[in-house]
């Protein structure tokens, strides 16, 4: 019985350790050139990059475009790496992958006049033990990406602590979360980033109405320790492309 108990305890501890494993999200935003087809980029993602990342063990790569007609057009690529080391090694593994090299030939050999984007903006986001891994939503037709900027690191620490009490409010309000984390590199620092998923904009709007009227949210916003911990909110509505894995 002692051995059985010890085995069960070990399995339980290991299971908890796996569940608590955090991820690093690489969020790329490709700013597209005017009057230039993006087919080269889409084919690269679909036929070369995403399959190669999957072979590396990276699952659920998301590809999105903005809802509406904002200019310049942008494509969002979300890559959930296992950790920062996986992120660091990913590009080297790509160029060691013969299948990738062959599939990506048209993209990798494209000249300045053929490549469909002006630049790539990249952010790295570390998940937290409170929300350690990306969750693939069901029946999602619209995604909301939110970036909360703080005026300095102390204010961001306050917002991160506040957010620990917000997960249950999002769930109650019908605003399923896809990922959440603290930005460790990129634009808008210091900041945190998260993504919500809904069937459509109406459901999202209804969810936010429930959120701001939730008694737990009203209690949080009344607490002095959490006042003034944000300086700006960036919100973008996204729709998944057909080959997106999220």
TrEMBL record:
Pfam families linked to this entry:
NIPSNAP
Keywords, A to Z? Signal
Leader sequence range is 1-20
> Endoplasmic reticulum: present as a keyword of the record?
no
Q: Where is the NIPSNAP domain?
A: 143-245
- SUPFAM superfamilies given in the database record: Dimeric alpha+beta barrel (SSF54909)
Claim: Cell inner membrane is one of the keywords in the record: no
Query: So which domain of life are we looking at?
Result: Bacteria
Q: What is this protein called?
A: NIPSNAP family protein
Source organism of this protein record: Gaetbulibacter aestuarii
Q: Recite the lineage of the species.
A: Bacteria, Pseudomonadati, Bacteroidota, Flavobacteriia, Flavobacteriales
């Amino acid at each position: 019985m002692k051995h059985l108990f010890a085995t069960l305890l070990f399995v339980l501890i290991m299971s908890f350790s796996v569940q608590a494993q955090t991820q690093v999200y690489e969020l790329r935003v490709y700013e597209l050139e005017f009057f230039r087809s993006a087919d080269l980029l889409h084919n690269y993602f679909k036929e070369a990059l995403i399959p190669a990342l999957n072979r590396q063990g990276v699952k659920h790569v998301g590809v999105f475009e903005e809802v509406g007609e904002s200019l310049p057009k942008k494509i969002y690529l979300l890559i959930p790496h296992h950790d920062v080391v996986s992120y660091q090694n990913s590009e080297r593994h790509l160029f060691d992958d013969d299948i990738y090299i062959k599939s990506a030939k048209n993209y990798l050999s494209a000249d300045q006049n053929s490549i469909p984007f002006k630049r790539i903006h990249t952010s790295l986001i570390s998940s937290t033990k409170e929300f350690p891994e990306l969750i693939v939503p069901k029946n999602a037709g619209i995604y909301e990406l939110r970036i909360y900027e703080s005026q300095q690191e102390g204010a961001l620490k306050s917002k991160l602590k506040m957010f620990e009490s917000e997960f249950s409010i999002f769930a109650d309000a019908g605003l399923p979360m896809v990922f959440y984390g603290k930005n460790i590199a990129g634009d808008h620092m210091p900041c945190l980033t998260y993504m919500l998923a809904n069937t459509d904009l109406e459901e999202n709007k209804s969810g936010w109405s429930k959120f701001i009227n939730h008694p737990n949210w009203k209690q949080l916003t009344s607490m002095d320790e959490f006042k003034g911990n944000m300086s700006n909110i960036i919100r973008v509505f996204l729709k998944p492309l057909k080959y997106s894995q999220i």
